[in-house]
Amino acid sequence: MDTERAATQDIRPMEVGILNLMPNKMETEEQFLRLLSNTPLQVNIDLIRIDNQAPKNTPAAHMDNFYVEFDDVANKKYDGLIVTGAPLAHLAYQDVKYWEKMTLIMDWARRHVQSTLFSCWAAHAAIYHFFGKNRQIRDHKLSGVYRHFVQNEHDELLRGFDPAFYAPQSRYGEISLADYASIPELNVLAKSDEGGAYIVASEDKRLVFVTGHPEYDPDSLKQEYQRDLSTNGQPQIPVNYFVDNDPNKDPMVNWRAHGSLLFTNWLNYYVYQNTPYDLDQLSE
């Protein structure tokens, strides 16, 4: 930001929504709130639920006290919106019970939000909805902490990133790099050899797709691995995660700095420095 703009800017709190699609709402909201709090900007958060169905693993009292239904904020405009992943890996999009509502919200976000960040399942769902590119289902789950490489060091979303950095992945779905390259308005900003595209953004900065989980806690992959052990018996050990690749040892945590930087950059460069002071002036 240049000196003249800095001296004359109007400042107000950022309005950010989190559409939480995960069954364990409390764990997920804490992970994203931690990342959003690492900024000098004042941020007002709305925790949003897609419907009034009782979620798994989250007390009804918590939902009643801290969440609003989407219909209650449908007339509001936001500086930023985060749409979390969801455990829907093997369902066709049209078989998701709230797919119709999901498409409505994605279209709504194009009119009501300056920049929307889609995470994991939601990232692939949005690519499918907006650009018609469907994911493929991998034979084995991509699970672990992978080395990723910056593809565009000059993009503000990656400002301060090391050329190579680590981030957790936990997904079956994958969209090929060729499919991303076929969409002129999208740029692949970071990728890995094993998992392909990791961070993708539109030219106008209003759509961001993150296929991994920079928000994960140190033991998130461990909990998923233990859950998979109890349900299907022989899951693959998360790659580059446990010390000596031994699930009886502690996880190695080497992704949190870049995860924090990613969200700080998103709030600053993609949201704050582009959003209108009067959100009613937000254009489609």
From TrEMBL:
Annotated site, Important for acyl-CoA specificity, chain positions: 89
Active site: 120 (acyl-thioester intermediate), 213 (proton acceptor), 215
Sites marked Important for substrate specificity: 170
CDD domains: GATase1_HTS
Top-level taxon in the UniProt lineage: Bacteria
Annotated metabolic or biological route of this protein: Amino-acid biosynthesis; L-methionine biosynthesis via de novo pathway; O-succinyl-L-homoserine from L-homoserine: step 1/1
Subcellular compartments: Cytoplasm
Keywords: Acyltransferase, Amino-acid biosynthesis, Cytoplasm, Methionine biosynthesis, Transferase
Main location: cytoplasm
InterPro entries: Class_I_gatase-like (IPR029062), HST_MetA (IPR005697), MetA_family (IPR033752)
UniProt cross-references to SUPFAM superfamilies, sorted A to Z: Class I glutamine amidotransferase-like (SSF52317)
EC number, as in UniProt: 2.3.1.46
Pfam families found in the cross-reference section: HTS
Catalysis: reaction(s): L-homoserine + succinyl-CoA = O-succinyl-L-homoserine + CoA
Residues making up the signal peptide according to the UniProt record: none
Molecular function terms, GO-annotated: homoserine O-acetyltransferase activity; homoserine O-succinyltransferase activity
Cellular compartments per GO CC: cytoplasm
Entry binding sites for substrate: 141, 170, 227
One GO term (biological process): L-methionine biosynthetic process from homoserine via O-succinyl-L-homoserine and cystathionine
Family that this chain belongs to: Belongs to the MetA family.
Its job: Transfers a succinyl group from succinyl-CoA to L-homoserine, forming succinyl-L-homoserine.
Entry protein name: Homoserine O-succinyltransferase
Organism listed in the record: Paraglaciecola arctica BSs20135
